[in-house]
Amino acid sequence: MRIEKVLNNNVVITLTDTKEEMVVMGRGIAFQRKVGDMIVIDKIEKTFVPEGNEAIENYSTLFREIKPEIIEIASDAINHAQTILKTKLSDNIYLTLTDHLNYAIKRTSEGIEIKNPLTWEIKKFYKIEYDIGLKTIESIKTKLGVLMSEDEAASVALHIVNAKQDGQEIGITVKMTEVVQDILTIVRLQFGIVFNEESFNYSRFVTHLQYFARRMLEHGDKSSNDDFLFEQVKIKYPKAFECSNKINNYLENKHHTLLSKDEQVYLAIHIQRVTSEKIK
């Protein structure tokens, strides 16, 4: 393989046997190298063929503009995620995560912090991905001296979750959507309301349901059971709790699973929030 384009010291473009442009990544793979030189095979860490000429241009623009250290941090996070999760991530994450980290580092350095409204859900339902996010922001602190918030760890985790690939992904997505729609219908009919789909509470409720449905379909429920909080929510939000019982019955009848007490508590709280804003 010969170098067709040098994007930076760690990324080059070459051609496949079928003359398609291919991204080749590796530490120092282009150091003191030029177009036409042979690629040192031992330095190759990752290769992939982006879909379409536009994708190649996006990679070319991105990797020319971004510091090599940021590309290395993103690549390390992706490689670590694939090792820990034992699954392949979409090649597109090399573009999306690197671009996100570059922007996040820049605005954090300028004192601009953006809260991630999904941090709570991500920490709760995607602990492994969130831990990878924490390691990533720790690496940013060590290598670049930029201190980032836990919200950024959650954003990294979300990129990893979205990039997961396996043969069951489409089937899980379809089933997950069905579960979410069924639960929304139960709540809507129980309270006789029309959801305000533009509201924050609705958005957070749907996100919670998506994470719950995916976790249920992929791994089963691993939540603990907090009896005290369960009883408190049952007393404080009786209508929302009653609705969560109906959802529990639906899950048992159709999906042969039951909510843990923890999950029923969180579900009842979300139902209380999303229905209270309509009642008001």
- Tell the overall outline: elongated
Strand order of the largest sheet: 1-2-3-4
CATH architecture of the largest domain: Orthogonal Bundle
* CATH fold call of the largest domain: PTS-regulatory domain, PRD
Overall pLDDT, averaged?
A: 85
β-strand percent reads 5-15%
Number of domains: 3
**Helix-strand topology string:** EEEEHHEHHHHEHHHHH
The end-to-end span amounts to 66 Å
What is the CATH domain class of the largest domain? Mainly Alpha
Model regions low in confidence, pLDDT < 50 over at least 5 residues: none
- If you compute it from the alpha carbons, what radius of gyration comes out, rounded to the nearest whole angstrom? 23 Å
Q: Report the total helices.
A: 11
Description of the molecule:
This protein has helices spanning 53-65, 68-85, 93-109, 119-125, 127-144, 150-163, 169-191, 200-218, 227-236, 238-255, 261-279, and strands at residues 5-8, 11-15, 21-25, 46-48, 88-89, 164-165. The N and C termini lie far apart (66 Å). A 4-stranded antiparallel sheet has the order 1-2-3-4, covered by helices on one side. By secondary structure, it is of the alpha+beta class. The longest helix is centred in the middle third of the chain and has 23 residues, at 169-191. Strand 1 (5-8) and strand 2 (11-15) form a beta hairpin. The chain has 3 domains: 5-52, Transcription Regulation, Sacy, Chain A (Roll), CATH 2.30.24; 68-165, PRD domain (PTS-regulatory domain, PRD, Orthogonal Bundle), CATH 1.10.1790.10; 169-279, Orthogonal Bundle (PTS-regulatory domain, PRD), CATH 1.10.1790.10. The protein contains 11 helices and 6 strands.
